[in-house]
Amino acid sequence: MIDLSTTITGIKLKNPLMNASGALCMTKEELHELGASSSGAFISKSCTLLARDGNPEPRYADFSGGSINSMGLPNPGYQFYTSFFPELAKYTKPLFASVSGLSLADNVQIIKTFSEVKALSAIELNLSCPNVPGKPQVGYDFEHSAEYIHAVSKICKKPLGVKLPPYFDFAHFEQMAAIINKSNIAFVTCINSLGNGLVIDPAKEQVVIKPKGGYGGIGGSCVKPIALSNVHKFRELLKPSIQVIGCGGVTSGTDVFEHLLAGADVVQVGTTLVQYGPKVFDRLLKELEIIMKKKQYSSLVDCKGKLKQLS
Ligand code: DHB
Fold this sequence. Notes:
The protein is an alpha/beta fold. It has one domain: Aldolase class I (TIM Barrel), CATH 3.20.20. The strands form 4 sheets. The chain has an 8-stranded parallel sheet with strand order 3-16-15-10-9-8-7-4. The chain has a 4-stranded antiparallel sheet with strand order 5-6-14-11, with no helix packed on it. Strands 1-2 form a two-stranded antiparallel ribbon. Strand 8, helix 4 and strand 9 form a beta-alpha-beta unit. The protein is globular. It starts with 5 loop residues before the first strand and ends in a 17-residue tail after the last helix. The mean pLDDT is about 100. 3,4-dihydroxybenzoic acid (DHB) binds next to loops.
């Protein structure tokens, strides 16, 4: 028997998989389906203070290497989730809430309220939504990020994590890690989509999504190397007590295994979940078990963070 259990911020998960926020987790029905799925935990769609319709459709498209989206934060508003989360407690697995208020004050108000919701295990503060016109990603502005993290840490009574955008320069990894190491953040989730990519349909000579002139966040298999570098770098730079959730490019059990090697404690699934639905967790877990068995590993600790260098 292979033990796939893991722990994040002291919370036990029976396996390391969960959905990435945004993937099939906005409505009551979607969250019930995730609750009933074989994932080890689940998280709700990033919410704002007030309900939002989001950007005009089509706003999500698959392409050969992954997906592009510019959803624009459609969500029913945080009060909907405050009253709905207790219904999800029956699934007896950890429930996270993703918060993406449009200002620091909004985030503070939402997180104060969510702090009192017993059904919630943890909160993921989203510093990296690339799709709201006129609202830059907070995670690319280090001063702003420090201010958000400081203010929210003070009022949050649940384990608090931050969802980060991908970084591409060691100086940026170091700046963000220094901010997080000084805070009481319990985990980071790396990575959100690669912001403002452009997918072109050559036959139609056209963009594939309507909002923002066709620009949108890129996810799926093409982002895996960037996701792995971000997981690995933050694992290296963060204090050992701060955990890392890997997200990006997971289409198979092997991809999950690579995230674990890079240092992830939990692994989120976005594009692949949207493409195949919550049943996909069954396949990913089966594939992960097969790899672990082949390698004669009996639990995740045998491989977690054990990436080797060339000598
Ligand atoms: C949306 C996209 C994101 O990548 C994110 O982190 C939050 C929201 C969106 O467009 O809805």
